[in-house]
UniProtKB/TrEMBL annotation:
Protein family: Belongs to the universal stress protein A family.
Protein name per Swiss-Prot or TrEMBL: Universal stress protein
Name of one Pfam family that matches: Usp
Residue intervals of the UspA domain: 9-143, 152-289
Source superkingdom: Bacteria
Organism: Amycolatopsis tucumanensis
Length: 289
């Protein structure tokens, strides 16, 4: 097991089933991207351990456990992708902060949706949540149910520039995985409804829908040219973004979203759509900033 700071696909290991799914997902991605896989476990040690009675032993056993988890993850990654280069790293400190630091030298960070902490019923742990909101690279969150290997990749396209990065990531990933890509744009009459409900105006939904379709096609035209081998389907749906994306996620292998949408403000880590998807999407979710 070697240490590394070269660009890699990072997988965060904490001994949980979701993290092992993340490791295998990351291993495939490392293989497709011709990058090393970097497995990282962050060991949070008790304060002032050596002075507390039995404290030294506790530190030792935590570190040993960390090495065991990394060894197990290494075995799973190796079995999934025999050809890839794998590095492991055991760090100490606060998990989210250390992983954000690790992600700064990674092309992609992959985490489980849950870890060993939290409580039953919690759908997204605090470490994944922090990385999705503040990670310096694209972050993929994988659930503890086995992620599908086939099916389309779905990218959510809204009017924000944040979705440009998501579109780029989605085409790149679809190309490598030889997966069809669905570009989904949702629109609603919500803002119209609230403002105009007092006015005697009938909204011409067909015309709005046509406009939305045209805008999506214009937005994607350049990408279609750049990735002629990626089968692309454009879909516009009159629904809320989360509902539209969750429906499209059925049977998909990955859903890609920008970190923030059109209604976000500076300093906000994660928009509400991305946040809801991370909680409820049955397949892996990539958050791209
Ligand atoms: N100490 C850690 N070291 C490395 N990765 C971690 C650590 N803690 C959590 N993770 C990563 O974050 C994912 C989610 O865990 P977490 O957010 O801590 O959820 P929970 O609150 O359920 O423990 C894990 O599946 C793993 O990928
Ligand atoms: Mg945890």
């Amino acid at each position: 097991m070697v240490e590394s700071i070269e660009p890699a696909v990072l997988a965060a290991v904490d001994g949980s089933p979701a993290a092992l799914n993340a490791v295998r997902w990351a291993a495939r991605e490392a293989s497709l991207r011709h990058l090393p896989l970097r497995l990282v476990h962050v060991c949070t040690l008790p304060p002032a351990p050596s002075t507390a009675p039995g404290g030294g032993g506790l530190v030792e056993s935590r570190l040993e456990q960390g090495h065991r988890w990394l060894g197990e993850a290494h075995g799973q990654a190796r079995a999934a992708e025999p050809g890839i280069e794998i590095h492991t790293r055991l760090r100490t400190g606060a998990a989210a902060a250390a992983l954000i630091e690790e992600a700064a030298t990674a092309r992609l960070a992959v985490l489980g949706s849950r870890g060993l902490g939290g409580f039953p019923g919690l759908l997204l742990g605090s470490v994944s949540s922090a990385l999705a909101a503040h990670g310096p690279c694209p972050v993929v969150v994988v659930r503890d149910a086995l992620p599908p290997e086939r099916g389309p990749i779905v990218v959510g396209v809204d009017a924000s520039t944040s979705s440009d990065a998501a579109i780029a990531f989605a085409f790149d990933t679809a190309g490598r995985r030889q997966a069809p890509l669905v570009a989904l744009h949702t629109w609603t009459d919500m803002s119209l409804g609230e403002t105009w409900s007092v006015l005697p105006i009938d909204v011409e939904y067909d015309e709005v829908a046509e406009d939305e379709r045209r805008l999506l096609a214009e937005r994607l035209a350049g990408w279609r040219e750049k990735y002629p081998d990626v089968p692309l389907a454009l879909r516009t749906v009159r629904d809320r973004p989360v509902r539209g994306l969750l429906a499209a996620a059925r049977g998909a292998q990955l859903v890609v979203v920008g970190s923030r949408g059109r209604h976000a403000f500076d300093g906000m880590g994660l928009g509400s759509t991305s946040q809801a998807l991370l909680h409820h999407c049955p397949c892996p979710v990539a958050v791209v900033r």
